[in-house]
Amino acid sequence: MAKYQYIAKNTLGAERSDVLHAESAEAAADLLHRDGLVVLSIREVKESVRGRLTQGASLLSPPVSSGAVALFTKQLASMLHAGLPLIRAIYGLAREEHNTTLSQILVAVANDIEGGESLSGAMAKHPKAFTRLYTSMVKSGEESGTLDTIMEHLVRYMNRTEAIKRKVKAALTYPIFVVSFALIAFVVLMVKIVPMMARIYDKMGADLPGPTQVVIAASRFAAGNIWILLAFLAALVLVYQIARRTSGGKYAIDSMKLRIPIFGPILRLVVHAKYLRTFGVLVVSGLPILDALELAGASSGNEVIERASNDIGDMVSRGSNLSAGFGMTGVFAETVVQMVATGEETGQLGDMLSSISDHYDDRVEASIEGLSSIIEPLMIVLVGGLIAIILVAMFLPVFHLGGAIRRGHM
C-alpha cells in the first residue's frame, strides 16, 4: 500500500490534514468520502532513505532552519492580524512551505489543534522547529489574547538575532579559510617538501645550519609519529566533548572563550546582546520575571551568562531588586545595571532591555568592521611568516651548496 497525504473539509467546513494508506489515490479519496469529507488535495508521500516521519521530523530528516521558522512566524502573524482562523492559517502555510520537514510539522501542529490541543502545546512537541523560548512566548500570547502581537515580537527578535549571527559568521569566514589554508600548506611542506630536500642534502653530504636541522627534525618526528599525533588530537576533541557535557567543564570552556584575545571581547558583546534582547522580549511578552530570567539564560548559549541569570533569579525570589541582582553577579557592565534600574523605576523594563541590546548590537557591528580591517593583513603576516620561516630554513644550505658539491666530487 502507498501512503497519501490529504487536505479535506468536514461537514462543518473545517479543514483537516493527515495521512492514510491506500492502494491508489482514488481509493484514498473513496475512503475520505465515506467519512463525509470533501477532498481538497491528495498526494502520494514518497518515503525517502532518510526515513521521514509523517507527523514531525525524525532525527534523520532535514533540519528546520531558524530562517524558515522566522518566515513562517511572520506569515502567521500577518494572517492572524488579518483575522484568519488559526487552523486554516497553519494548514495554508503548510501547503505553501517548501521545507518538507517544516511542512509536515505544521500539518501535525494543525491536526493537534483541531484535536483540542493549544498552539503552544502542539508546537512544543516539535523542538526541532520550535524552541522552548518560542513556545513559551506563544503560550503567553494565548493566555493574554495577544497572539498576533506576540508573533510580531517573535519575528523582530528572530530577524535581529539572525542578522547578528550572519555578520559574525561573515567576519569569521576569512580567518577560518586562511587558517585552514595555512594548515594544509604546513602539512604539505612538512610531509612532502621538507623530506624531499632533506634526502637531497643527505646525498650531497651538506653541512646543515641549525634552523634547517630543526625543521628537518620536526618533519621526521611528525612523519614518524603521525598516528600518535592524530590520536592525541582525537583525544583532545573527545575530552572537549566530554567536558562540554558537564556543568563545570562547560562553564570553564565558555569562560575561556570570553577571554580569547581579539575575539573574546566581540563574543562577550554578542552573548550579552542576545541575552538582554531575549530577556527583554520575554518581559514584553508578559512572562513572569523569574521564568523570563530562566529562559533567557538557557537561550544565551553561554554557561557563564546562564549561571549569572539563575543567580539573579534566586536573588529576586528572595526579595532583591532586579537591578541589584544584575549588579551582584559582576558579569554585566554598570551601564546594563543602570538601565535595568531605570526600567524598574519607570515600569518600562522591556523597552530599556531592548534599548541596551540595540546598543550592544551596534558595538558588535563596529567591532566586526574594525576586526575585518585588521584581520586580513594580520592573517597574511602570520601565514606568510610561517611558510617563509620553513622555506628559508630549508634553502639556507643552498648558499653553501658549492662547497657541498665539490666535496661530493672529490
Taken in chain order, the helices and strands follow as EEHEHHHHHHHHHHHHHHHH
> What gyration radius follows from the Cα positions, in whole Å?
30 Å
Query: Oligomer, anyone?
Result: single chain
CATH architecture field of the largest domain: Up-down Bundle
What form results from the Cα inertia axes? flat
CATH fold-level name of the largest domain: Receptor-associated Protein
Structural classification? mainly alpha
Report strand %. Answer: 5-15%
* Unreliable runs: 47-60
Number of helices: 17
Q: CATH class of the largest domain, anyone? A: Mainly Alpha
Number of strands: 3
Q: How many strands, what sense, and barrel or not for the largest sheet?
A: 3 strands, antiparallel
Using brief descriptors, characterize the structure shown.
3-stranded antiparallel β-sheet; 410 residues; 2 domains; single chain; Receptor-associated Protein; 17 helices; flat; mainly alpha
